[in-house]
Amino acid sequence: MHNILSRMQKVFDKPLIIVGGITILGALLRLYHLGYKPLWLDEAVFYWISKSSNVQVVINQNAVTVNTPPLFLLLLHFIMKIGDSEVILRLLPCLGGVASIPAIYLLSRQFIDRFPSYLTALIVAIAPTQVEYSQQVREYSLTFLISIIILTLFFMQVHSPSLKNWVLMTLSMVIGIFLQYGLALMIIALNLVCAIMILSIKHNRKSLLIRWSLAQFIVLSSVVVLYYVSLNKQFRVGLGATSTSSFLSGDYWNGSFRSLFSFAVSNTRNIFDFAFPGYVFLFLGLVGFIFILLKKNNIAIMMFAFPIILTFILSLPKLYPYNGDRHDIFLTPMIYVLAGFGIRYLLNLDHLRWVVLPLLLFITYFGFKSNFDYLKYPGVENIRPVVTALSKNFETGDKIYVYYSAKPAFTYYYRDNIESQIYGISSRGDPNKYYQEIDKLLLTYNRIWLVFSHCYSNECELIPKYVSEKHRVDLIASDNGTWLYIVH
């Protein structure tokens, strides 16, 4: 028995083996069914932008079509030279998600011991949110990875200044600026952390200030470039809580002082749930936060709290969303580290260390169950049955009316009869314009196919109902947020 325990101890003393095994586990979860779900609206929009003929077109299309910096779309543009299947399109986010597992271990090791850092990496490996966004053609898994790298290099540069750490930290911040706007908030928060640290130290204050100022000058220069490349155009289109971003309504304060406390508490809780759902993870995070307060680990407190506080403040005037959603994924690395602090604290309690095992078993069970439920799910907008049914039943002389939000995904999968496709205008909240479009088509054509997905409100019910008042309308195929009707 002693020999077995001794051998196990030797294995746990080898991070390459343990972290490598955890990373392989996370990779298997992220690779499984990578191409199983069809592209949904956002993924398909990114596909069509990145499919553009050259880099400048991609940058221009990004600036006027979506509210993101251009880096991910440019990377996708070059990836698509290999191919454009779902697996290839999702390969970059998948790799980013896999790389985040050893990266979170390295971040955790800046603060806590090896064993709790292993468990922090395990939690990230099986976190349902991380698996989900590692399988979507969006920038979020890479945002998570870059946010970990920025935090790690910031900590290393502050504690062990070197030219190498300074260069890598500055480079990661520049990449972050061009990857997701939320990372700019993290960098601003780290500026506040660094300012406080500079004021609190007595030695090497001048050299730290000079190095940090130079790094931020380079980052600020990148912001200026980004403004002229994308941001100025996106401001005209509308960033923030616009009428077309109704799904973000819960991410902003409604302006009532009575609701301010509730907004702060519930939305902060949502961010913890976004990192890993459930009371067990929340408990570990709260224990970790209390632990760093008691230990007066000021840098850990600031690196966790300042980005969250800044994002919360900006959500009040509706400048940036604050809630448990993908836009705030850059806030989650230090939340995982907090859970690691909580594990470390419990392990150090002689009479309570046994509690860690059932807590981790519950987290592991819940993580695998949630992941397998998600991985088997055919997708929020399964357009494939619609395309299959249309391909079998389309006849010469038919017209296909494609609801505007269905166009990106539908045209990715349905490449036939392009001349017969009519793309509806965007008229959110005013279905009369859709009615006019279809009425005009029905004056000329005997059979019209109606294709719907990613419907706004109940528009995809209202339109067929309106048409059925004067014509025969049959539902031919539907599945998870997609519908195909034929109008005779």
Report low-confidence residues grouped into runs of 5 or more. 237-244
Number of strands: 5
Q: What is the beta-strand fraction?
A: 5-15%
* Biggest beta-sheet profile: 5 strands, mixed
Q: If strands are numbered along the chain, what order do they take across the biggest sheet?
A: 2-1-3-5-4
C-alpha-based Rg, rounded:
25 Å
The helix/strand order is: HHHHHHHHHHHHHHHHHHHEHEHEHEE
Number of helical segments with 4 or more residues: 22
Question: Helix and strand layout, with pairings?
Answer:
Layout lengths: L1 H11 L2 H17 L9 H10 L4 H11 L5 H9 L6 H4 L1 H19 L4 H13 L1 H6 L6 H20 L3 H15 L4 H19 L4 H33 L19 H19 L3 H16 L3 H18 L17 H15 L8 H21 L7 H10 L5 E4 L4 H7 L7 E3 L8 H11 L5 E6 L5 H10 L4 E6 L3 E6 L1
Parallel strand pairs: 1-2, 1-3
Antiparallel strand pairs: 3-5, 4-5
Helix pairs in contact: 2-7, 2-8, 3-5, 3-20, 4-13, 7-8, 7-10, 8-17, 10-11, 10-12, 11-13, 12-13, 12-16, 15-17
Question: How would you characterize the overall build of this protein?
Answer:
The protein has two domains: 11-376, no CATH class; 384-487. It has helices at 2-12, 15-31, 41-50, 55-65, 71-79, 86-89, 91-109, 114-126, 128-133, 140-159, 163-177, 182-200, 205-237, 257-275, 279-294, 298-315, 333-347, 356-376, 384-393, 407-413, 432-442, 459-468; strands at 399-402, 421-423, 448-453, 473-478, 482-487. It is mainly α and 488 residues long. The model is unreliable at 237-244 (pLDDT under 50). β4 and β5 (482-487) form a beta hairpin. It contains 22 helices and five strands. α2 runs antiparallel to α7, α2 packs parallel to α8 (114-126) and α10 (140-159) runs parallel beside α12 (182-200).
